[in-house]
Amino acid sequence: MGRQRGPHAASRCWEWECGALTMADPRGLDSVSGPAPGARRRAWAELLAGRVTRQKPGPGTGQKVQDSAVRLLRSHLDWSGLLLEVEGPPCKKLCLGPLIDHDGPEACSNLSTSFIGSALRDHASQLGVPVAVLSSQMAASSIVRMCAAGAEHAHRVLLDTEQRKKLSSLIEITQYLLAHSMFSRLFFCQELWKVQNSLSLEALWRLHVHNVVSLWELLESCADLQAVVSWLFRNLRLLCEQVEAPCQHTDIARAMLSDFVRIFVLMGFQKNSDLRRNVEPEQMPQVARDVLERMLLFALEALAAGLQEESPAHKAVSCWFSTFSGQTFGSIISTDAPKRFFSHTLTQILTHKPVLRVSDAVQMQREWSFAKMPPLLTSLFRKLFVILSPEELVGHLQEVLETHEVNWQHVLSCVSTLVICLPEAQQLVHDWVARLLARAFESCDLDSMVTAFLVVRQAALEGPSVFPSYADWFQASFGSARGSHGCSKKALVFLFKFLSDLVPFEGARYMQVHILHPPLVPNKYRSLLTDYITLAKTRLADLKVSIENMGLYEDLSSARDVTEPHSQAPQDVEKAILLFEHTGKIPVAVMEASIFRRPYYLSHFLPALLTPRVLPRVPDSRAAFIESLKRADKIPSSLYSTYRHACSTAEKNPENTAPGMKVEPNCVDEPLKLLMIALGGLRAAMTDPAQYDVLSAQIAVISERLGPALGVSEDDGSCEASKIQLSVLAPELEQQEQKVRVVDLLLTSFCQNLMAASSFAPPDRQGPWAARFTMTMCGHALLPAVLTRLCQLLHHQGPSLSASHVLGLAALAVHLGESRSVLPEVHVGPPAPARDLSIPEFFNSLLTCRTAESSRLCLKSVPVYMPLSAYRIIPARLCGGTWFCTAAISYSLCKFSSQSRDILYCCLSPGLIKKFQFLVFRLFSEARDPLSQEDTAGLAWKPLGLPSMDWQRAALCLWRQRTFQELLKEKQFHLTYRDWLQLELEIQPEVDSLSDTERRDFHQWAIHEHFLSQPAAAGGCDGDLETACTVLVDVLLDFCQSSRSHNHSENSDLVLGGCTGNRDIFSRLQEMAADLEQGPAAPYSHSSSRGHFLFRVFRRRLQALASGWDVAARLRKQQELLMYKRVLLSLPPLVLVGSPQVEQPAAPDCDEFFHLVNSELLNLSRCRPCPSSPLVPFSLACTVLQRNFCSQGGALSHDITVHFFRLWWPRLEPELHCRWRRCFQGPLPPELQRLQEAQQFAQSFLSPDTAAPAPGPAWVSAAALHFVIQQAGKESVESALEKLDCQREELLVCLFFFSLMGLLSSHLTPHIRQTSSAKAGDSLKALHVCGEILGFLQKRKISWLVLFQLTETDAGLGRVLLRLAPDEYIRLLPLAFYSLLSYFDKDALIRENAFLHVAVDMYMKLTCLFVAGETSAVSTPANRSQELQSQAGAGAGLGTFSSQMAHPTNGDPVGLIRKARLFLLQSIPQCPKKSFSNMEELLATSGDWDPEVSTALLSRQQAVSDTDLYQEPHLF
After folding, report:
1. The dihedral of CA 21, 22, 24, 26: what is its sign?
2. What pTM was computed for the model?
């Protein structure tokens, strides 16, 4: 047969072996094969002719023939060809090829391998070698021939299809040989390494995978390990290139790469590996580590050289870095090998080529921020961070820096990636830096100092949402006495030496920080600081950077290049205008710059502000800001005139307006396009769960591009105000079109990304991307614009938002609340309370429940996260709004389900959860029933794909959820009775979702079935109806005082004087108060020492008001009292004083009522439309007086009597008389008779008859007379006054007092429906009445000065009069006193000892009133003053002074003070000695009120004392 086997050799062998040639002799094989060369071919007969005898087949003949055939084949087989032979010709008989390829029956396959094994055994026996050696040599030779035969080029690492088929057959045969101990792995490996350059990496991998020979055995059998390392590195690099190349065998290549990496990691980093015996223990791990290190070195070198996209090197590096994933190490993650490998790799990266010096790092580190880092390097860092914890990473970073020379670019890039991708590491880095500083100052360790500053600056480059700015850190570390630098002079010298060494290398920004926020240095070491500042300023001058020309709001925390002043000035102008809009004041930074930084202010800021333009008709914020600066003399007149002239010119030529302000569209759109591309990249990564690890990197890119898109610095997070000013009713973003576009892009992107992420995973498995995105939106001074836009969307455009938008906004609100500790508070305008709100409270203020539409917006949410498997979100059709409360609460509970409850307290406002409870109770009657155990136990969170109108089910599902119900057990989240009332009062019945009947049923359930029976600790009333009434009144008054009760619309339905609210609450108050009064089990009785609940509320609230007589305090108190009056009007009178019953004849206790009237309601006189308007409603006055009168038998106190003449007596008298006669059938009681007599006495003054003597008491008759005079005409008044001469002194004094009150009332009370002449006539009439009565008093020498010295300690008549006058009128008595100057009998007054004391006291008090601004209340326009003066001049006999002095109160309070002062200066020299008694005490209490008058008093007093010294004593 020869050495070469044809394709039919196997077939012939098997024919022979199976006995097809049964008569053959072993010697006849040659003839069968063919004639010898030169021999004649014999016929078949000739061949048979030589046979004499035919041999009969015996029992062993067939076996002999078969053995002979086998020996023949063994002696002529080509073993390498036999092992590689795969195919045979198509035939029905068994062939070797199909058997090896497993295409034939299993029995035939076993037969073929057994034949080959037998043949190999015989051949090895003939050669005298072990069969294992022979088979190993044959197999190695076959593999080499196979790899060489199919190779298209010299460095192919993958096999083709034909090669894989042949290798598979060979592996099967080899496995048979191994199973029968006919194969030597060691010899096989040695044979392979002899021709390693011809081997294919896939062949070795398949030998390893099929357990022919492991990679470990292959490696340990090689004598030249360095050559093996080089061969493996070369082939692995080629494999990485082919993995990324488009081909049909990519999956095989990836599997190969993962297996090799996994094997090398286990081999090189397994702590207790099972080392083999043929090599040194450390050689094999070292080989594995060398291969991995060379691959990493290749990747880092390629990165350093710069990689081009789609280049082979880029593909190889990308593929190699992709192996650092959980998919590669998932099967061995339980061992410590991956963590050791990752730590080792991190060390290699950090120490790769440490050629950069510290000075290079200081200069270049801003180019190594996360956003500027090569994406491949960031991806490698992120993959390394997966297995290592933040603590391990920071610790390892610290260890490497302490023990190795490092590559600063890689180290600082690692720091950036660490703080960006692992929020937990931010505090760890901060603590590490603190330890470095402490160590540096403790031992003057320069390395620690360098590391601390480089790490801090690198982390600060990533923005304030990640790490405090460098300026903040430097100030916090060195700006106080607690810093480590202040412990000794040595530490200070060390610090400034270090800072000085940095000066030649660091950027201008850092030196500006050091200068503007210098370290705190004791005075004795101040020279160290001044020397450094001088050096830094010199360096800044070399860099052409000036501290004086810095922008007002230039961000020192940014490491970007210093902006030129002309570029920074427009940004400063916009920021200053924005702050001016929010505060209404010139920003402090502008005021400081106008004084301390005038070069920048005059040369750059003002020119940018005063850019000529067409001025709007209605001044905008810019115009108002300019005018404010002009009024403050902060704009030079010449510059302002030039600006106004240029603006006037611009109106004529608008096309030439502000050429310097125009910006090419491309300049603005290009950064915005880059931002949109970055947002699109985030969206693409969000939709691919395999790329979740790149989300943090993409968000960092977005943060990097936000600054240019906004036209601000990279991190313009500075804000002059510590809180954000915002108007909820009119949120505007004026002159910020670009910022609005950016904010809208960010909000839309957040909503879309949330929807995309939620389609793959629930919130708690989405990672920190949402929180990081939210913090990105809070930087770059963008938070005010974001909140303003959210206010516009939620408060004003809620019904028009889509479901996905509101879900996104709800999640955004949650994450903003999560960051509330680092965000400023929001100061909002109406209708929210006038106070600073945290971010969650701000969102709560945007959601109202007033109307059906707003209630749905507040309640509804996109159906989110409530049972079990698939997490998807299906938007629901909107119905008047979307579902915000449910979305926010559901998202929070799902997002933070595995975290502590404290984070929920940060994210969610208690008000938001209370509103949700309120609306669920209100809109769903089934929610009012107690929840059963089944309702709360079986529900798990899931997304609900609800029908379009089934939003009720989503809210109820959340309501019944166990986690939510447990949350409601917290006191701060539980809806109390007071909370319910506050929310219900905001409901507007005309647009309520409930009908009138449904609303009343809900009120009855809430009050009587729910809150009344609840314990007080849970926010209920403990079953006490009086407590329920008290809380209702208290909440009602609070609501009326709050800005929430004002609708601010022209057509609002007014309730309680400008307050809009749920009027049905008043009905509930009336019902409850009536039940409390008439119920048999009412706990309250009028004889109780506590008094009526209504007056207790009034008394407590009045005591809580701020005391004082300033304008604000008085207005607050008047507003409060006005509410009391309106509440009294809303209640039936019998509720306040009780209904008369036969079994309860006791008199009602009205003391509290009349105390309120006399002490407080009288002070509302200025708020009444006319002086005669009632302080108490007629129905209430009638009821009180009737019950008091009938129960006491007509005994009326003066507290009641004084109010009879306030409009009600003519209407009350007939009814009282009738009731008395019906009840008692007798003459009128003395009290009622005296009232009639007083009324008749007063009326008699208007008749021509002689007036009768006044009945007692005198003050009652005086009051009746005063009110009659007020209602009479001028002629009747004059005739009535003539009859006063014969009256008692006490009556005249009381009448004069009431007249003084009338005079003050004529000046204070706004006469709404009167013309100016009518007003002047009233004032003149009141003045004339006072003057006439004063004339009678002076004529009869009756002392009246006591009326101006009334005190609470007075007894008798003085105390009564004091109680009858409002407190404000008593304080304004000095005005009345000096208004009567023209009526004083000066000579008679001077003779009175008390006159000078009273006059000086009144002057002092008048001056105090003027200083406090209270005299402005009596100031009248000039025309009114002239009118009064002209009328006064026409009158005769009204005084001795000129007409100018006659009416000093009119028009000008300063004139009144001036004339009072002149009167005193003229009177002091004429006063007798006795007038100066106690004058020193009076002057001592007033202070330096008027030096000239004080000097005159003291001089006159001293002169009188000196005169007494020279007078002779009167001895007799």
Report:
1. positive
2. 0.63
